[in-house]
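Narrative of activities, Objective 1.

The group set out to show that a structural description can be obtained from nothing but a protein's sequence at a throughput compatible with the screening campaign. Below is one input-output pair from the validation batch, recorded exactly as produced.
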Amino acid sequence: MMRLKGLRVGFAITGSHCTIERVLHVAEKMVFMDGAELFPVLSDTVNTIDTRFGPAQGWKEFLHKVSKNKIITTIVEAEQIGPKKLFDILVVAPCTGNTMAKLTHGIVDSPVLMAIKSHLRNLQPVVIAISTNDGLGFNAGNIGILLNTKNIYLVPFGQDSPSGKANSLVAHMEMIPNTIVEALKGKQLQPLLVSYQQ
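Output recorded for this entry:
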């Protein structure tokens, strides 16, 4: 079923590098199985830094092959998202604690944060898929703020490693499409807190 057919989805990726590969598989399915049109947006970190999880150029080549659209990599490009009404919905996955903290405090110093700000000016939905080692620490308050912010919806999340990283929270990335469907109705996908299998 092509449940996202014809939907223009901004797909912003920030620097939780260990989660990017999982997110890219979801993005690929959204295009080829759900019929979405994908418009990638990259943070400076994802755009430029090679890590043990993969080279920046590899992520970009994959995204371009899947989306067939130009990748937005600058604040200037991202600023046009709102005025030109480029997206029906914007997904931020993975969304780091750093990005969350800046978003909740109105700081716009990256292409992804500008994309969110520009998209929200049209009162269109933003879906956030968190991936942060301090979700139950410094960023717990910021998650609370996002949960109470109009037009922002969170992908269900849980503790991915309670014994090893007690404060870490990661969204169930495979739930991004379902979260999109509900967000377009103005609803938060429930349940929001979903355990990881240990």
